[in-house]
Amino acid sequence: MEREIIYAHEHVTIDLSGVKKDADCFLNNKNQTIEEFKALRSKGVSTIIDVTNRGMGRSTEYVREVIKETGINILQATGYYKEPFLPEEVYKLDTKEMAKILTDEIVIGIDGTNTKAEVIGEIGTSLNKVEEMELKVFEASSRAHIETGKPIITHTTLGKLGLEQIEIFKKFNVNLSKVTLSHIDLSGDLDYMIRLLDTGVNIAFDTIGKNNYQPDEDRAKWLKELCDRGYSNQIVMSMDITRKSHFKENGGLGYSYLIDNFLPRLYEKEISNKHIENMLVNNIKNIYNLK
């Protein structure tokens, strides 16, 4: 197919090393990122959705340099992640004040720059529980979404609590067709995936290659089943690389694994070009109103 592939959930830079007490979780290998993104560009990747937000080590200058060196379009995010990675302002401000910060980053720019956030995310919930501050973030994010129309990307811990997240969004009249629930492949539960999709949200298979959680063979089987049932227009894909050790040069899979290793599995399952085009190109274009 004529490709213009879009990676739906990545972190150009991210720093969760303090809370995790693990230097591997500080993704600041700019030169390696540039080399890997150049390789992606040569394989037809046009755009990357960068979901690093407030308190996660976001840097517009860093991203700007990567864009300049690689020619890849990178859309940046506003929002707050999840416990225990939330910045102090989440505890101090009310939801309206938080929503204004997010809205300003969308309308005016991020951190005093003219780079405007194009997505609210990734905003997350903890394992089997929505913490009080996480609920606050979801409320503020919903307000910013209603104000600006920008899409929302969530984090689901191990793919769980997607239905609970949807219920929160419904209370605020969020447009579910503009919501993407991340890491749903980690749930390992096809029936649950279908229940989510039937609400009208989008789901991400964005931990491809992380076989210690779920084997890629199963990911391919689930995608085959979902495509056969007509859901390919609500699914997006990515790698969600967050550690130095994930880079190819450092012994990891690298960003190109999705194209070089996982796509052939999908073709082996006889998933049609039309479905693959939806999951890698068309759906993100529709969610973000990209041309």
From TrEMBL:
Keyword Ubl conjugation: no
S-adenosyl-L-methionine recorded as keyword: no
One example GO MF annotation: hydrolase activity
Amino-acid positions noted as binding a divalent metal cation 1 in the UniProt annotation, renumbered to this chain: H9, H11, E122, D240
Cofactor: a divalent metal cation
InterPro entries linked: Metal_Hydrolase, Phosphotriesterase
Alphabetic keyword roster: Hydrolase, Metal-binding
One Pfam family here: PTE
UniProt-recorded name of the protein: Phosphotriesterase-related protein
Species this protein is from: Clostridium sartagoforme
The organism's taxonomic lineage, starting at the top: Bacteria, Bacillati, Bacillota, Clostridia, Eubacteriales
